[in-house]
From TrEMBL:
Protein name: SDR family oxidoreductase
Similarity annotation: Belongs to the short-chain dehydrogenases/reductases (SDR) family.
Top-level taxon of origin: Bacteria
GO MF annotation list: oxidoreductase activity, acting on the CH-OH group of donors, NAD or NADP as acceptor
Database matches in Gene3D superfamilies: NAD(P)-binding Rossmann-like Domain
Database matches in NCBIfam families: PRK07063.1, PRK07231.1
Length: 258
């Protein structure tokens, strides 16, 4: 029996990276999935790949998570295609790293519009249906930046701290209706964004090696390792996990100093 058989899920930012890995893992476990993505061309390519790999029902839809109407439309189309949504994964996010005193107002707003407001827009769109049915699982992709601070990364960790607060508050608010809200906090994960950051450094190979040396396991995580944690939280195997955050970072955040 597949772990998500019969379930319908919407994943934001699912065109590539962690979001795409989650969508593929969900489809392999029997879910119908909607890829809600700003870059619709990438999302459609990913959707075709997932269909070919799994035979699952998959849709890609242009979605701007900063716009509540766009998210509501994605939820509506997902429900028309697949029926009631059992799972929402708020994965869409952007890196905004600035010096606090030279950061512009636009930088601040751009970070929070995607990384916090976007999560709330997703939650607000699916919660009425989940509450009415008395079942549902919302998974918010946070970050180890939600509880650890790296200088030079402001205001990204502020938004991610907010994601944890939102997760806990909604999880408690709707626990009596059997709607669970949890978060996953990835550390360094091998995505395109990670490679782009390395490539921007003066010596990309040295930057990559320095990152690996910081990790207790001497490697960084893979998107599918985050995805399988999402599968667990979305499944019926985690019925008493709520208002919690699972860290997926190979132990890095437990390390006191280098």
């Amino acid at each position: 029996m597949k772990r998500l058989a019969g379930k319908a899920a919407l994943i934001t930012g699912a065109g590539r990276g962690i979001g795409a890995a989650i969508a593929l893992a969900f489809a392999r476990e029997g879910a119908s999935v909607l890829l809600a993505e700003l870059d619709i061309d990438t999302a459609q390519q990913t959707a075709e790949h997932i269909k070919a790999q799994t035979g699952a029902r998959v849709l890609a839809l242009h979605t701007d998570v900063t716009q509540s109407a766009s998210v509501r439309q994605a939820v509506s189309e997902a429900e028309q295609a697949f029926g009631a949504l059992d799972v929402l994964v708020n994965n869409a996010g952007i890196n905004v790293f600035c010096d606090p005193l030279t950061m512009t107002d636009d930088d601040w707003r751009r970070c929070f519009a995607v990384d916090l407001d976007g999560v709330w827009n997703g939650c607000r769109a699916v919660l009425p249906g989940m509450v009415e049915r008395g079942a549902g699982s919302i998974i918010n992709i946070a970050s180890t930046h939600a509880f650890k601070i790296i200088p030079g990364c402001f205001p990204y960790p502020v938004a991610k701290h907010g994601v944890i607060g939102l997760t806990r508050a909604l999880g408690i608010e709707y626990a009596p209706r059997n709607v669970r809200v949890n978060a996953i906090a990835p550390g360094y994960i091998e995505t395109q964004l990670t490679h782009e950051w390395w490539d921007q450094q003066a010596d990309p190979a040295a930057a990559q090696q320095a990152t690996l040396e910081l990790q207790p396991m001497k490697r960084i995580g893979r998107p599918e390792e985050v995805a399988m944690t999402a599968v667990f939280l979305a499944s019926d195997e985690a019925p008493f996990i709520n208002a919690s955050c699972i860290t997926v970072d190979g132990g890095r955040s437990a390390l006191y100093h280098d």
